[in-house]
Design brief:
With 292 residues, the protein is an alpha/beta fold. 42% of the residues lie in helices and 23% in strands. The strands form three sheets. It has a six-stranded mixed β-sheet, with helices on both faces. The protein has a four-stranded parallel β-sheet with strand order 2-1-6-7, with helices on both faces. A three-stranded antiparallel β-sheet has the order 4-3-5, covered by helices on one side. Strand 6, helix 4 and strand 7 form a beta-alpha-beta unit. The radius of gyration is 19 Å and the shape is globular.
Length: 292
């Protein structure tokens, strides 16, 4: 392994377990969420995620809160101790103000500290899609890429990470403004399972409508067949809120239809779960560049 020429950092919007960050020696700043009167950092720990979804099910009001400038400045100043140029990959700026806060703070530190070299890049991604982008970038780092080379790799690859999401109840999407109240009401009655994706600007957008969970899972596989490239070289990621059985079903469907390195199942944590609810299920892979 080549000596690292850059330090890559991120935030907890990538929805990966603690082992992921430890394995890659990947510093992250933790985005917080609010449940009732509690303000809690998203650590990516299953027990905390279980508690969050239980509180959400009990009707506790849950929302997200962005990273503030004090937190961002403290985080970057701690990372500068490594003495390396920093590339920070942020949760989609179209879904959170985290990216804009981190950019503003990085620019201020760079201007005031001649030894600082911090670049903040918008992942235009969410959850495990952000994690897949990070994994690719970390592989570049471990191969000895310079900051310029890593930046070029990001430009050529970040929109190739495809995200497909669904939910089987629309309450949380209605509450977060993703669907209108009337659409959520009729969608729940008619068992509509929307298939959603992340567009080129990093926004979560509706893509298709399917009736029933089985049909929307088949639709996910159809999209994967159409868009994936070099599946044999990939670890496919599946994420869920509180629906492991559906995630296992989707994993079996992927393995039935594709030859891949592996399929891993992860949780969607509170930061995204606040807006999607416990029935969220998502599929992530690298393929054709997003064209929506």
């Amino acid at each position: 392994m080549a000596e690292n020429k850059i330090l890559i950092t991120t935030d907890s919007g990538c929805d990966m377990p603690q082992e992921f960050f430890e394995h890659f020696k990947l510093p992250r700043i933790k985005i917080c969420y609010i449940c009732g009167e509690e303000v809690l950092p998203d650590h990516g720990i299953d027990s905390e995620t279980d508690r969050f979804y239980a509180m959400q099910a009990e009707g506790v009001a849950c929302s997200t809160t962005g990273i503030n400038t004090v937190q961002a400045e403290q985080f970057f100043n701690e990372q500068l101790a490594a003495g390396l140029p920093i590339i920070h990959i942020a949760f989609s700026g179209a879904l959170s103000n985290t990216c804009s806060v981190m950019k503003a703070v990085a620019e201020r530190i760079n201007a005031n500290n001649p030894e600082a070299d911090i670049t903040v890049l918008d992942s235009h991604a969410a959850s495990a899609g952000q994690a897949q982008l990070l994994t690719g970038l970390l592989e570049q780092r471990d191969a000895g890429a310079s900051k310029e080379e890593a930046g070029e790799w990001y430009l050529n690859n970040h929109l190739k990470y495809n995200h497909f999401y669904t939910v089987s109840e629309l309450k949380s999407l209605k509450r977060s403004g993703r669907v209108k109240a009337a659409a959520a009401f009729w969608g729940d009655i008619l068992s509509i399972n929307p298939l959603m994706t992340v567009d080129t600007e990093g926004r979560l957008i509706p893509y298709k409508k399917e009736r029933g969970r089985k049909k929307v899972l088949k639709s996910m596989i159809a999209e994967m067949k159409e868009r994936i490239e070099n599946p044999e070289e990939q670890v496919i990621l599946i994420s869920h809120g509180q629906c492991l059985e559906d995630a296992e079903t989707l994993k079996a469907m992927v393995l039935e239809n594709f030859t891949v390195k592996d399929v891993k199942i992860n949780r969607i944590g509170p930061v995204i779960g606040c807006h999607t609810g416990p029935t969220v299920l998502a599929l992530f892979f690298k393929g054709q560049e997003r064209d929506f």
